[in-house]
Specification:
4 copies of one chain form a homotetramer. Helices cover 34% and strands 22% of the residues of chain A. The first copy, chain A, has helices at residues 3-22, 31-43, 66-78, 83-89, 129-132, 148-164, 187-192, 251-263, 304-324, 347-355, 375-384, 412-427, and strands spanning 47-50, 96-101, 104-114, 170-178, 201-207, 216-222, 226-235, 273-282, 292-301, 328-337, 362-368, 388-394. In chain A, strands 1-2-4-3-5-12-6-11 form an 8-stranded mixed beta sheet, sandwiched between helices. In chain A, helix 2 packs parallel to helix 6, helix 6 packs across helix 12 and helix 10 (347-355) crosses helix 12. The interface between A and C is medium-sized, with 26 and 26 residues.
Chain lengths: 444, 444, 444, 444
């Protein structure tokens, strides 16, 4: 790309990121963001799919209540979202897929970007860059504090470059813009809708993740923990705590007992597990025996089996804690990420492209992580079908850790990430087959 | 009173109650209500005191934060509250006292009425009378669900009748309109401001309290439990629950442990005790080790000593629960009601007046109660000084229990209560002295 | 009684008490004590019943295991207990009843004495009187630390005096020597065997109970708490705690959770309750997930209904605690005392007799108590049938509280108690009928 | 060795093992066993050290109380233990070291054997081989259920063969007979006494450990968990649970709370941890607020740092649990094993010797284990000084798992283990130096 074009391209990603940052949308409610993506992909010549064909309705997890959805749809209309896109997406079906087919045969390459924000109120500090530069969140309690605004901008930046060189394209490109990554709620619905079927190469990643040097690239993240997210509600009976406490059934104490006992789930000899009751609230008045309590928790395991062990233990404990206080407990799975790791055979290929890039300063082959991601569902489906994929990291110093109110990254990472992805897209038709898999690109 | 006058008087109390019901104000923020009371008393000829001279600033408990106070004061101005009154009351000093002195010597008689609402959202049901008759709360999450709207209306109704017959008055009448009865936060500040000093007869009471027949009067409630209300906040350290849970200090689990252990405080051989953690909430995100948790709790005891035992145990448990998780706990007393009971020597006097009233259908000498009230601080001060007082109940069927979203009472109770109070005010100069106390009215 | 006779009689009670003290026997295993009682009553002319006809086998609670019973029976034989009595009592049926009928008609009067020791090892201190005077317990871990040795001696002392004056007797005398009062295990079995049926007057009591002046008599104890004693065992699965903790099911943690939650059973608005997990043990090795845990607990309530509330809560908590850890819990009631109080109409009669006794120094009409006793089952049955009864206290200074290793009393209390009981036996044919009951003695 | 000599040698080990099995002795009380070892080594020509010079007194952990020690010493005398040895060992200093120096220079080689039994009552089943062959434990509640009887027999068998070929010996042989391996209490005291200083090669191991084929050898066990064993005692105040529960301070509930919270110690992001409250007991009577409770627990970590994290958490929790109930908690470390693994450079050397042995059927280079051992302290000290060591397994089918009442092994494993150790002793002077350590045997 000639220099002026590159400057303009970099600027457009920055503007895009800031626009999305200013209008953060939580999972399954990314109407404005998804419509922006869909319009842009469409304008660039991609065949765009959104709504229920982009994400299988029943496979979505942690979908907000009907009233919340309705309010966000109304707001989207007020904000000028194209009613045609909104109509397709309505009811919380905000996945977007853009497909471009090359003239020549070649592999199917899928890139995935996530679009949702987190439920954190953005810092009011004057020195916080998004506030200083006037693109801070306009929605109280919502913020792009995990960098998905950047991810979406990278996706659209890559989409533009790929489209520019569409004539050279071999095989098929699928750009997957995923809703609801936070809480591991969205990826599976795109897998179930079939978008990973037939994929030979799958590329995705994250900017930031611990503060790292700008220009550092990690080719493959290992050791994602399998995770299950659960919401539970305990319901008992209120009573006047002074006059007749015995008439009540204390839902709050049941929740407290559950929280303590969940954190006491025994260690497992086969590997690491985790449990966190992240949020709990209950009770209606100081002098009333609490009739209701709610908790949000997550479980993790080094393997899917370990995570299942944690879920079984949790199920028993929730029910026993309810029984302990004569109350009921209803709980549901609202998110699920599987374990997984990238395909190490792609590391040399990525290293080769990085070596050619001026903006890549250091290269790390692989790095373990103790966190969870639902892109693992996509990695798994691709691998099950003989394809290969990786989850990369694109280094940037961070103003504060992910999900914190002063989170921010160095916007120069957008160019590095988008350029590397585009390079990989054009390079992969030439890659050797995965050893032992018999997977071959290009034949379809 | 002639019939038409009585009808008008009854109607004016109903209108007053509905006006207050429509604009509920929580404890220490009763600007609109208190200003209404102050204006009305002033117009009737009472000498009105409000602000810091009506309630001792440091003796107030559970005062809301500065920002909340500011917002309510702004709202009060927008709602048309007289800035002169507001200026006196500002900073949460919403007590009002009206004094009327008779021409003749006589006892000092004090009547007490409470003005605050509770934090309950009023029922949206069309059939709920305040909604049907269009005087439901205009403030989300706030409601007069305990009848204090009625109490204030009774107070103003009584004020009017007493003023009408001011010429006959012997001694001194003090009408005490108390803020923040909910949570036992306000009475002590009026006691400390000296308004119960020198009082010979003290009359107060409640409408409703368990659904009772209209026209029933209980002359004296016994067995109030001494109570202390406490707010606690636990503060620890957040951490990513998947990658490095060991870096966190879990404030939520500390709160849960505290809640369970508080409910496990041992029984006391000397009498009844109570504990209730009525509200608890903590945590900021599902995958974050919770760094903060808050709880609201109350303790009670059949005697002040038993309540103190509960407070000592609570203090130790809160600190130990914090230590258990390496977090801190700060707690404060936000309310305190002492135990107490009425003076039984007044029962025959009340019975005598009731016997003369058409609207009183049945009379109960005394009734025990397992609840708490801070009028007990007033009863205690009066008694300490040789005076006599009672806490009465004025029967009304209730649509739902106190503090429930569909709470409502039969407005005819307003007339019964106000009339009885006025009768007692005019009767008490003639009552015999309290046996053995040597208390004598009228000499000051 | 002439003086020398009285001295001899007093001495014989002291000797009897010391003999029993030296050979303490726990509940249902009082073979030596019961045989001594049976022989003596028989020699005095009473018709003696023991074994299954004296206590209904199925109504006994907390009976020791078969092996323990066998060992005590063997020991009893070795100790020279008459095999004829042992044969009747075997299997833990150690109740003894002695009946004497007068020549004249008159009321049925029953007196009850308990015989069992407690599981406490007697003090080794040289200054402890039973050790100094060489009648300390010869059985490690067992001691008459509650005064039942004295009670049995009083019973035999009274039996002697009554028999001496048998010719004057009107009606029927039943002397009930009860096993297993500790843990409230024995009284009900004698009630179920019918020995309280037809009783007009029932007299029983306790020496000591808080340290009191020698010569003080309390005519009627009030406010016994209803109580239920429960043994629970939790069974899970052992596993190596280092290699594979997940293969275990932790019975000890289930027991610990149960203990904490039992102490957290909510207060009841209707009155006092109590809970105490008095003993808990579990686990087999430091590095083994505990597969078993056992606990002994007791529940109390001011009324039978309150005690039943505690039992219901306990039942739910034990099961929920087991479920919490995936283990089982089996529990059984091993003792039960009902609430109750004496008949106040007997107080003046008792006062009258006391007034005639030189050894009675002070008289207390009634006294509340926060403890439990299973003589309450007898009081209840007598009352249900129109009879009257009281539970008295016979004052003595105590060297240490009941159940402590240095417990001891002033042996002069034996004479006071026995004399008062005999006086009452002979006086009661002349008492007025119970008001309103229509109960009349002497007609059978 | 000629065949007949070998048969005799094998038989002598079997007889030795059975003799020790019949007289099991717990940690620090192995007077009979240690005296037997000391006498035998002395007879074979070893320089024998025992008592405080063999194990540093202050570095011993989990030493029994003075009274227990006294009883075992008396019993040892009654059992005919040589008073001269006993005098040296008294007070629980039962370590024995035998040293043999070769004529030629060469490396220092140390072999370690443990001697203590476990606190398990041996099975009464007639078919249990030690019972069938009449060498079952003669001490109730004590049993060699972990194979240390075999280890001691192997040590003495090896001692004999080494002594027979003393003329060929190069360097120095140290045979370490360690007390109190159970609970990881003894090894450190021998390390602190200096017996691992200067050691070039350290060999130790275990028979059995999961049921394995006879003749299988594992050259090096990896992944021992670092562990700390703790005993805690909570002391509060007794009170009558019915009359005045408030006067008590409940030590049992404090222990229960501690147990639950200890099992809730948070997972650590750096690796595996373990916690087990293996035993807990408290309380003195059903109706007494428990004044004392005791617990035995163990902590583990994949690394020493992780184990220290668990100890820090435990310390805080024990103190907080005590504070929660107003009781005290005293705790002490009664055992400690560090993590560790063998030196892999020795594996080929061991494989080479195994290949020459008829009785070795299969060879495993290394195997991870989730358990703990205190030989790790010896491995660590040897490694710190540049020496090398391994912990081997000698396969045997097991009748039941370690520490179970029917534990037994195939006695043929004794010959295999002893022969391999002797071969290694004579082979190691010829081994290559440890790579990179510069450690060289023989020069001293």
């Amino acid at each position: 790309m000639e220099r002026m074009g590159r400057e303009r391209w970099l600027d457009s990603m920055v503007l895009c990121r800031r626009d999305i940052h200013a209008h953060p949308e939580p999972g399954w409610l990314e109407y404005r963001t998804a419509a922006l993506v869909a319009s842009r992909l469409s304008a660039l010549g991609y065949t765009v799919t959104t709504g229920k064909r982009a994400c299988k309705s029943e496979a979505r997890m942690g979908v907000p209540g009907a009233e919340t959805i309705r309010q966000h749809e109304e707001r989207a209309l007020r904000d000028g979202v194209d009613p045609a896109w909104l109509e397709q997406m309505k009811g919380g079906h905000t996945a977007v897929v853009g497909v471009l087919r090359g003239a020549k045969p070649g592999p199917v390459v899928a890139l995935r970007f996530d679009m949702d924000c987190v439920e954190v109120g953005e810092s009011e500090e004057a020195g916080h860059p998004p506030r200083q530069l006037r693109f801070a969140s306009d929605r109280p309690g919502l913020m792009h504090a995990c960098g998905h605004d950047g991810h979406t901008a990278i996706g659209l930046g890559a989409a533009e470059l790929i489209a520019e060189r569409a004539g050279e394209l071999a095989g098929e490109i699928r750009l997957l813009f995923q809703p609801a990554e936070e809480g591991c709620r969205g990826a599976k619905s795109m897998v179930e809708a079939g978008w990973l079927d037939g994929v030979n190469y799958f590329l995705c990643g994250h900017i930031g993740v611990r503060s790292r040097t700008l220009g550092e690239v990690v080719a493959s993240v290992d050791g994602f923990l399998s995770t299950t997210k659960i919401d539970a509600v305990f319901r008992g009976k209120a009573a006047h705590a002074g006059e007749s406490p015995q008439l009540g059934s204390n839902a709050l104490l049941a929740a407290c007992a559950a929280a303590l006992h969940l954190h006491g789930i025994g260690r497992h000899g086969d590997g690491a597990t985790r449990v966190n009751v992240g949020m709990l609230e209950g009770g209606s008045g100081r002098n009333v025996v609490p009739a209701e309590a709610r908790m949000k928790l997550e479980l993790r395991g080094e393997t899917e089996a370990l995570c299942e062990y944690m879920v079984r233990e949790t199920s028993r404990i929730l029910e026993a804690a309810a029984a302990m206080y004569g109350v009921t407990c209803e709980w549901e799975t609202v998110g699920h990420g599987t374990g997984g790791e990238g395909d190490r055979s792609l590391i040399p290929q990525i290293e080769a492209e990085c070596a050619r890039m001026e903006s890549v300063g250091s290269f790390v082959a692989s790095m373990p992580i103790g966190a969870s991601e639902d892109a693992t569902w996509m990695l798994r489906r691709v691998r099950e079908q003989g394809g290969r994929g990786v989850y990369m990291l694109f280094g940037s110093p961070l103003a504060a850790g992910h999900h914190q109110t002063t989170f921010d990254f160095d916007e120069r990472v957008l160019g590095t990430a988008a350029e590397l992805l585009v390079r990989l897209v054009y390079a992969c038709p030439g890659w050797p087959e995965a050893p032992g898999t018999g997977a071959s690109g290009g034949e379809e």
